[in-house]
Automatic annotation (TrEMBL):
CDD domains linked: HNHc (cd00085)
Regions that span the bilayer: none
MF terms in GO: endonuclease activity
Stretches the record annotates as Disordered: 148-168
Presence of the UniProt keyword Protease in the record: no
Coiled-coil residue windows: none
Organism the protein comes from: Terrabacter tumescens
Domain HNH nuclease, first and last residues per copy: 70-120
Keyword terms, alphabetized: Endonuclease, Hydrolase, Nuclease
Descriptive protein name: HNH endonuclease
Length: 168
């Protein structure tokens, strides 16, 4: 799929993302379309060519490679609120991949974002035992990645459950 340019609030190019990701940014109100395809549509939206962040992201962060300190909030940010098991953007909890009760560490490499139903369903089991394969491998993010995620991914609020079919 074609890539969409993401501009900082000052209209400098930051990076490129998928159309789906860009539309989600527009839908969440963190970016506004600058240029769109005249005819192509993605759900209720015209397919963007360029989007611009509503909030300015400090450029100096983009060059930092410092690893971020682990935090539960950081896990949700790193995974952009997406559940590592079902893939829906409704994750509000952190799941230990190898359960804490079985020696799993509380660390970036053993933590993923998960929605409450998936977290409850997985319970005290490994992904293999629960037959709930991870959609990605957890990793240690840099401070930049978290900073950027914070700027582009508002934490899902309890009120964001009034999602309709228009949710891209
Ligand atoms: Zn889930």
């Amino acid at each position: 799929m074609t890539q969409v340019e993401v501009w900082n609030a000052d209209e400098t190019l930051l990076h490129r993302v998928s159309v789906r990701h860009a539309v989600r940014m527009i839908w969440r109100g963190v970016a506004t379309p600058v240029e769109v395809h005249a005819t192509e549509r993605f759900g209720p939206y015209q397919v963007p060519v360029v989007v611009r962040l509503v909030r300015y992201v400090e450029q100096k962060w983009l060059y930092s490679r410092t690893r971020a300190t682990y935090s539960r909030e950081g896990v949700l940010l790193r995974d952009r609120g997406q559940c590592a098991y079902c893939g829906r953007f409704t994750a509000t909890t952190m799941d230990h991949v190898l359960p804490h009760s079985r020696g799993g560490a509380t660390s970036w490499a053993n933590a993923v974002a998960a929605c409450e139903p998936c977290n409850a369903r997985k319970g005290d089991r490994t992904p293999d035992e629960a037959r709930m394969p991870l959609r990605w491998d957890p990793y240690v993010p840099t401070r930049v990645q978290l900073h950027f995620a914070r700027a582009t991914t508002p934490t899902p609020s309890p009120t964001s459950t009034e999602r309709k079919e228009s949710d891209p």
